[in-house]
Amino acid sequence: MTLITDVRLRRILDSRGNPTVEADVVTESGGFGRAAAPSGASTGEYEAVERPPGEAIAAAREHAVPRLVGEVYAGNQRDVDAALHAADGTDDFSEIGANSAVAISMAAAKAGADVLGAPLFQHLGGTFRGDDFPIPLGNVVGGGEHAADATDIQEFLAAPVGAPSVADAVFANAAVHDAVADLLAERGVPCGKGDEGAWAPSIDDSEAFEIVDEAVSLVEDEVGFNIGFGLDVAGAELYDSDSETYEYSDRSRDTDEQIAYIADLVDEYDLVYVEDPLDEDDYDAFADLTDEVGDRTLICGDDLFVTNTDRLVEGIDHGAANSILIKPNQIGTLTDAFDAIELATRNGYDSVVSHRSGETEDTTIAHLAVATDAPFIKTGTVGGERTAKLNELIRIADDAT
Ligand SMILES: C=C(OP(=O)(O)O)C(=O)O
Ligand SMILES: [Mg+2]
Q1: Fold category of 135-400 in CATH
Q2: Most ligand 1 atoms within 8 A of CB, residue of 45, 195, 302 to mutate
Q3: Which of 42, 236, 394, 398 has the lowest tally of Cβ within 10 angstroms?
Q4: What is the pLDDT of residues 243-273, one digit of tens each?
Q5: Positive or negative, the Cα torsion across 357, 363, 369, 375?
């Protein structure tokens, strides 16, 4: 029933106005799935390779489509993804492009679910998946590679860890986003938004800490549950490998100073989550920081692990973190993303399923997070391509309970 009979690929727009790859997968019995690849701006050096969409589509049509159509069942995700790897023939999807691969992988999963008449999270997670829902981490102030002339730290995140439901958490993050706007206006700071819909004011990091801390407390008082504070430092973007220092607008920090700075921030702001506090090549520095504060906050590897099980194994050996960011397009298939989550869970690491800064209306990551019982999802706070995922989470929770 789920034998793939057609795969169509096209260029569509992403949220930055750039082209990206969309895939349609059709099965023998009329099952249909459609998915689109997201795209990063602060990409990790070790990510699978995203090719220009036109090239990725041409290469996938030549190499991948013939291995799928009439050959593979969309209901068997491991076979679909093995065919994509075989068609590509490299270890980083540099032939067909991770953008073509991930779009086809996710579209096939949706086609499989369609034939089975099951929601995607149920198809992917199976009947024995747990009944927890991920806590959404919401980017409320941002800079780095996502906005010009804004904060050095890439993302200041609201983390509504005490929310009684997904919907309460989603609305709390939106309320923090709103409160930040009011506080910025009170201070006379004009600002627009960055790529992910977070406010991108021209202020320094210390002012951003003050404002987000106050906004979180105000909303916490309103909603009556605990809202934590998190960061994506995107340390690899700040790191200068020649001087071996982290370059902030107002000063440089060497690696020891960076570790001390982050550890102080964890204590001062009760941070519940810190992503990529250090450079993507520095497992040892990650391990030192995790040793210092890993008992009271999540130290999450994004550019460090790039959803790659080999890099995660290395991190586990070093004690480098206690959490991993999961971005399917960093590795190219849902199977690889699942394997990374499974390995992480077995080793006591929390998984955070994540959007990219360049997104589409695709909602696959909401289903992936629920299917795998991931404790967190990071998918923005406001903006159509972000609310697509957040609203899907609310619908999934509504349907499943
Ligand atoms: C979502 C992120 O940004 P990008 O997609 O630009 O890598 C991130 O760094 O976590
Ligand atoms: Mg990141």
Answers
A1: TIM Barrel (3.20.20)
A2: 302
A3: 398
A4: 999 999 999 999 999 999 999 999 999 999 9
A5: positive
